Amino acid sequence: MRVGFVVGEFPLLSETFVANQMAGLLARGFDIEVVCDRTKGDDRIDRQSEPMATLLARTQHWWRWAAGLSKFVRRLPPRLRYKASTALDAVFARRLNRCDVIVAHFGQNGERAAALKKWKVLKPPVITIFHGADVAIPARQAVLSTQYAGLIKHGTLNLPVNDYFRTMLLEAGLSQSSTTVHHMGIDSLEIGYRWESWEGTQLVVTTVCRLVEKKGVEFALRALASLKASHPEIDWRYDIIGDGPLRMDLERLALELGLTGRVTFLGSLPHAEVKQRLRKAHLFLLPSITASDGDMEGIPVALMEAMAAGLIAVSTYHSGIPELIEDHETGLLAPERDVSLLAGKLAWAAEHPAECERIALAARRKVEEDFNADALNERFAQIVIQLAAQGFAPEPARHVGVAGGLADPSSAG
User: Fold this and answer.
1) Which option is the CATH number for 2-185+372-388: 3.40.50.410, 3.40.50.2300, 3.40.1190.10, 3.40.50.2000?
2) How far apart are alpha carbons 244 and 221 in whole angstroms?
């Protein structure tokens, strides 16, 4: 069975869940084709090891030999750009018609495939997976129903990664029968569980994320400053791993809050060093918020990984996070932007290490039971098989070579 994946940019280190899902199907005997707008040269991605080597050998720019036209198309006025893009998509859709099912990651790519379904150019059923900004931002702008008008009419199956987004999509007009939640997950077997009490020692708090507004690092800093003032007896330090456009502003805020010596901005680190630092940490702090443009989390993989490793996850009632964390059962939650209550959660954790061990064990079980990547990939494989069994007959396949489009490393759309 052949599955065609439609993505914006591939591969991206920040979207490992896409490659992991492809790898899950490869392991179950599926053939994979990948079409994208851009490929990215990221030195942190091992392109020689499997399954990435196989995936890259089956990846190609959507417009193939006409890929160079993309920079000109992007400069066109919106209406003309849409018409030109759709026309070029239609010209090169034949490769996708050799697939049994199309899987589009992110709503905009699903809508792109739906446009071809509308014009009866694309034949296979289309599964669209919604992750975050692709739902939250158009919902904030009150354009969700118009932005995904094609998917409402021509999409076969819509899979938001949490129930919060499913509700948004249903309100926009997607049908109940075509829209169901499918979580992203992690391989918890690759993450060793380790519990270590901080009683009588320094509490190590860690965040691993891109430093953008929705991650809420500003509120992490403000909550820790409040903790410092209200509980001077608690010994703690805060390590921030990651980089991004807000780093300088956050470093300045830490200085203004008097946190010099307590907070360290470590920047981006190799994966092995991140794992090593997480093994030495006790609390994983990610107080996510809805950004000013409406951007939101799905369910952060970083939280799943921290919980699997035995850290206490401290986060917020935001988007799908409560589907992963139940307050005082599998982690600690505070309302978005509530510095006082967030500081209170940190103080409680610092003062109750014995009770936190129970929470850590429950968190590990939660990830193993509900966010197990292998089980989720098996469920996804069955979904694909069921759709293909509805009777679509793909065109005969031909071998396709290695990816093109290397000249455009800009971020996915």
Assistant:
1) 3.40.50.2000
2) 16
Q: Tokens 């519990």 belong to which residue?
A: 195
Q: What is the pTM of this model?
A: 0.90
Predicted confidence at residue 45, as pLDDT, reads 80
Contact 335, 317 (CB under 8 A): yes
Phi-psi region of 64 (alpha: psi -120 to 50; beta: other; left: phi over 0): left
Please give the Cα distance from 109 to 198 (Å, whole number): 46
Superfamily of domain 188-370: Glycogen Phosphorylase B; (3.40.50.2000)
Contact 21, 397 (CB under 8 A): no
CA-CA distance, 54 to 56, in Å (whole number)? 6
Spatial contact of 338 and 222, defined as CB atoms under 8 Å apart: no
Amino acid, single-letter form, for residue 28: R
pLDDT in tens, 117-129: 999 999 999 999 9
pLDDT in tens, 326-341: 999 999 999 999 999 9
